[in-house]
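Troubleshooting entry. Yesterday's outputs looked truncated, so today I'm pasting the complete records for two proteins to confirm everything comes through intact. If either block looks cut off, that's the bug. Protein one:
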Amino acid sequence: MNMNDIIYKKREGQTLTKDEIEYFVSGYTEGTIPDYQASALLMAIFLKGMSREETYDLTRAMKYSGDIVDLSEIKGVKVDKHSTGGVGDKTTLIVGPLAAACGVPIAKMSGRGLGFTGGTVDKMEAIPGFRTTVEAGDFINLVNSVGLSVIGQTAHIAPADKKLYALRDVTATVDNLSLITSSIMSKKLASGSDAIVLDVKCGNGAFMERYEDACELGSLMVDIGKADGKRTIAVVTDMSQPLGLAVGNSLEVIEAIETLKGNGPEDITELSLGLASYMIYLGEKAASPEEGYLAAKEALASGRALKKLEEFIAGQGGNPGVTSDYTLFPQSTCKSEVLAEADGFVGSIEAKSIGLASQHSGAGRETKEDTIDLSAGILLAKKVGAAVKKGELLATVFGTDQGRVDKGALEAAKAFHIQPAAPEKGILIKRIIE
């Protein structure tokens, strides 16, 4: 088999065979295919596209490029959850305890943040003592005893994706449905769970801004999951403004705790209950998503989900006292306020701009080597639709470097758009793809 022939074939818009795709993935992962040939094929795929069958073959080849996690020692139907990324998205810290409190075993591997979207691993590391790396046996024991464990993604899971994504990032080939699908689903399928709930974001703070593109991505990922024998559901959700009020690691963990206490913002509470309902349903602890929703709501109202979060934190070496004493989190020393410049209503809040403002305040990374400020971030005082008066507080930016905090505040101010009349209320959960 010849790599040049494979590049030519895709350049001409022809369909690649399973063997040709496996040859490319294994060769590039092992280093026998150079970057320049891999880049050429990625660009040909980007321009000519891939069929659903090709996408499935690419996903499977990437899945089998490394270890396949064996979760067979965990009792019950294991359910994973993945978000395509957003601003203020701390749902894993809420839906995990909700689903686990209803008897669904959650064995999840999460990533770090890069750019304006936050990573679950970074958020968990804001909890004093919390370990995001545990031995495989301990991981399984934690899920069996607590019902929930979330750890960092290992380098041995789908290593082809790590190499290909780094190459896509510098060759302008990121934004392609087949390449996005194979990147996400290769890791999810290799992670060992029996079922997957996908939170596919759309809007200006999402990777797929257009609703139609998000639906197509969700549909493709659901098909890939089902073809691999995993029950898979995609939930298309709005990311045209930040989710909840908190953006930034410690701030988001505190908001997750408040949500599990029943005090969370309406949108994060609604989305978390919705996602948990599908996890409970796929985990066979409810006969329908509607029954799963009622179970999740009861777990929230009774305090069982909050108790599950505390058990989860303690199980991974963290201090469960953070749920009652927020001073245990890393504390900011600087802040800057964003004030309304006119009377009216908040017409929109550009989620991406808020995410970038939070990143620049210290809460995110521009490169993987950057150190983040776990105390940094933004607390919104107003959401879309809120009435405001000139001089009223819109948001507060926190951190430990006043220069960075002030820069973040200037960027955050540009994200708010004030208009004379109240806007129509948007729909948070836009579509369910089964």
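Protein two, checking that the full record survives here as well:
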Amino acid sequence: MTALQNRYDFVYLFDIKNGNPNGDPDNGNMPRQESNSQKGLVTDVALKRKVRNYVDLVKAGEPPYAIYMQEKAVLNQRHQQAYQALNLKSEKQKLPKEEDKAREITRWMCNNFFDVRTFGAVMTTEVNAGQVRGPVQMGFAESIDPIKTDEITITRSSVTNDRDAEKERTMGRKYIIPYGLYRSHGYVSASLAGDATKGTGFSEEDLDLLFEALINMFEHDRSAARMEMNAQRLIVFKHDSVLGNARAQDLFKLVTVQPKPDVKLPRSFSDYIVTIDRDNLPAGVEIIEKL
């Protein structure tokens, strides 16, 4: 694997039509919404979940692309794999006293699990595997415009058991937004990625896979609630150094997204204009349009 030598920041745009991009379980699974601006939200956790699912799909769960955080995964069992592979014995909630052995365990987790070396992980359970600060971070996605949630009534024609066979059909509800274009920012730290001995070992190949996942992950995440959810743009800022050549917030300001002047109610990505201000791009930073 090729060690990461450059810092990256990126702007990620995706949209949804007649669906729910990220339901809030504390609010009847309605689409998440910022209370003051009424703009829609999608959590970083939801986006990372889709990245994990895509990588698991294309790499079939094999090291070094195994996925640590999976549904119904028993994390202690994941950690125990590291101890067994290194012929070490685990003590409850404690890493080995020898610093080199403790590092070996955490390094093994990074080497084998894609999401550990990408997003980091706190692995200090009963079988302690240490903790890792990930080089890749993503913020909440926020819709460009305020969203309006529609409540749709649905019916259920089938019943669960014989005694309910003569009952009338039951009613239910689902919540959708007619259309929403969302923007998220991402950060990739080359210094935290490091190499095989320092950092998590997140590599150039891992970065390519991350970008591939962001472009394609919605294609394999279709459901009744997210049928029309699509990645639209992935604009990457590549710095020519490990520490970077400009502040991320200044780079993000170079990308503006706004509805076309004659559009009052956006209902598709084509109703927006995405502008990249290349004239004010800082020295030492390159723009790569992945999508």
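Both blocks look complete. Sanity check on protein two: The helical segments are 44-59, 75-85, 99-112, 114-119, 190-193, 204-216, 248-252.
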